[in-house]
Amino acid sequence: MRHIFNGDCACEAFRATGRNDGELLVWRENYLWGELPGPDTPTEEFLAVRARALARMAPEIPEAKILADLTAKEAAIASIRPDETVYLWFDCCMYDALLLARIFDRLNRLPAPPEVYLSCAEPVDFHHTRRLTPGAVRLGAAMWQAITSGKEAIDALLAAVDFSELPNLREGLERYREDIPDADGWTRTLRQLQALQDRGITGFDAIFQAQATYEKHPFMGDSHCRLLLLRLRELR
Q1: Which end of the chain lies in a sparser environment, N or C, as judged by fewer CB atoms within 10 Å?
Q2: pTM
Q3: pLDDT above 90 as % of the chain
Q4: Alpha-carbon distance 63 to 216, whole Å?
């Protein structure tokens, strides 16, 4: 079995249940930040671009270390055999929707995809999963293709595809679309941060806590928030 988690906290919580029935893999990425190369970009090039972006986001971590971690994760997916079972442990936010889309894209590229089970709940639920059909995996892969192709491709997918098997991913994709910068560089999240400051909310801790009130599913970590506040200064 392979168990894939949306972060170290979820992985540690899983370990605390006493289960040790397979390989554990934590998917550490933030596809909400930095460039996402197009869908036909070779994997090696894609990972190099992402490592550079994440190194700018977290300069205290060497870019080579980030690249090695990204490469190892992708290799772990590529090594999955058709007789294995994959469990995906995620929650419902936009951040996790993009993680799942990338993982589905990788799974869909395997010569013979394995059985896949998904738990998508807030918080992550280690007691309930459901087996996904091959069509659901293909849908998740199509979502990744749209994300890396731009707003028009996202709109086309949302208009044409039934997301009933992956409703949380549709919700995440719709929220992500709102964070694609407009012609002036503004996104929904940037406007929300601006609105908080207009209300007189100052200080990072206060802003970070207040921004979550705008969201159905909080998705933003403190590092991401700090970077967006810097971006906000550039736009004003």
Answers
A1: C
A2: 0.94
A3: 89
A4: 33
